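Worked example 2:
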Amino acid sequence: MDKTALEKLALLYGIEPFYWDIWGKQHFASEETVLAFLSSMGLTIQNWDDINTEIDRHQRKNWQNILPPVKVIRSADERSVFRLQFSINILSSDINIPLRWALQKEGGGVEEGYILPASLEITAEQELDGKKVSRCQICLDLICPFGYHLFRLFHADSKEEIPVAEMQLIAAPKRCFTPASWQDNERVFGLAIQLYAVRSCRNWGMGDLTDLLTLVDVAFQKGADLIGVNPLNALFMQNPLHKSPYSPSSRCFFNWIYIDVEAVADFNEHAEAQQLVKNAGFQEELEKLRQEGLVNYPGVAKLKKQTLLMLYDGFRKNHLQKNSKYAEEFQAFREKKGKSLEQFALFEALSSHFYNENPMCWGWPVWPEEYRRPYSKAVMDYAQANQDKIVFFIYLQWQFARQLETVTRRCRELGMAIGIYGDLPVGVDSAGFDVWQAQNLYADGVKIGAPPDDFNLKGQDWGLAPWSQRRLFENAYSQFTTVMQANMSCFKALRLDHVMSLMRLFWVPPQKTPMDGAYVRYNFDDLLGIVCLESQRNQCVVIGEDLGTVPDEVRSALQDAGVLSYRLFYFEKYWQGDLSFKQPEDYPEQALVAVTTHDLATIASFWHENDIKIRMELDLYPNEGLREKQIASREQDKNNLVRLIFREETPAELCLHELSARLHKYLARAPSRIFMIQLEDVWLQDKQVNLPGTVDEYPNWQIKLPKTIETMRDDPEVSTFFAKIASERKKEQ
């Protein structure tokens, strides 16, 4: 095959020819990898002629479209003038025909004007099917509010309101939302939790939204201004063992298993459900689930689903059929969420149906062929015949939303500076709802991952489906916008996992390893503009998880956009001399800082080197040399840490609790806006939450906290721990 032509085609579809790993080694995308990626985007290439045909097809499409599908413009102030520049493609024979343009604004109102293509600058020309097409540059100055608008072109002399072309015009701010109090150099701190891991005296074996409500009160009492939670997005109801919160079925909907069943209003008026829960056998099962050291997802799901089905049946009889005010609230929620919620509920009902027929059939790719498309006749027939089953899943989303709103309302009542800080996964599982309902937007068969680095020496395959960058653009970024809106409307701060995905993602070819992967680019400026727009609209602070290999252009753009960097003590070192840890004053102001995170060792695990021992046991080191290097590096880090924290007063016998308390107090001095503390480190849990590179070899996303949250409120050691942090963050208790 013609390598030059293949490279040209690859670049047209965003495939980068090479990348540099963290050790400075250059890796080139193989021909096999490039062809696999192009195939996943729907291109058919078997020979040299096919490559040139696809190049021609891509270029023809760009010339055939009069307007691009979407244009994102950004301004510091929506009251200032936007300079709107873009090109139109017009037949040279029509260049003297005047056009009328109309900007239909999102909030109402239309702005109009006229242009004569012949008066515009011609930037390029192309022969297309025997006709010459001119590319003309338009430049308009508009006062345009931030939002999603529709720009249309009409023939000026036509009386019919049929546009000759249209595009989505997204007017976005330059920066994300920042609280007004930050102008006074406010620095806040918060508690990071894995909600499923929370123990309490009353939950059903895993943390729920009432536990989160309790933690809000306790954390605020200790001086905290926010609580960070793991992703709460929808997983797979029929497969509770699919437990990673970073591999959701949908990023637009939420996980029903976090509902506190006894806090649902229908529970109080359902005597049969109350009797079921009070039953000695049921209570025995609940207590067993609470006492287990690992979250028993199937056990929790079984009891919750059984009870929630009863509550839904009562809701239908007592409210839906009588059209009560409570039912009106439900219908308002249903109407607001619209068609997408209906589709999600239909997907969940179908998932339940096929799982009941065959427990191995829990993802749409293995459903019967006629159900794999959301608008097939079989799917529509099922929807018409099973409305009650479908509405149950809408009911679950509603109850989740009601309980989460109770939590966020409590944060507002207490006057917390931020409140709940959510976490958005970088992608979705290919067997889930988001891919099923928009299959044309996703690359088929490939997965998102990461190249090898110090902590994941064989690289990572996260098993997530990536968007096709070309199709995302052609659909005016509608799916990306929906994801941002769904999450920023629920949280007052949002962490974008692997924020580099706004610019590029590391794709792993089908049936290959991360060693065979390569990067694929996205329209970074456009996606960042949408992030800024939704952040401002929802007054949601944005944190970009920028660990690992981060291109300089990404760091610079995120800084300019007001996105907080994500800085972890373990990684923040002076890269000269003995690689000692940074002083607090050298951390950036526009950042969230923490000692560690869910993918890394807790402080206790770090000190006891449990993470290294587990990697050795599971053979996660590709060679002996790298293993020995990490062991030596850890010893050096521990020595540097002790010198840093204790200085000349280093004790003869080190107390790990004192080390943790001093380390957190030390890092709390950083000028960074947000400082987060993992609850695992308050209680010195010695197992990390997730061990990257493993699936079932390690109990990822299952390990519970060692104590119940009820013990936090009056524990003097915990109170002392937080008091020291609050004093460093200059926050009165």
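Residues 500 and 668 are 26 Å apart (CA to CA). The chain has a mean pLDDT of 93.
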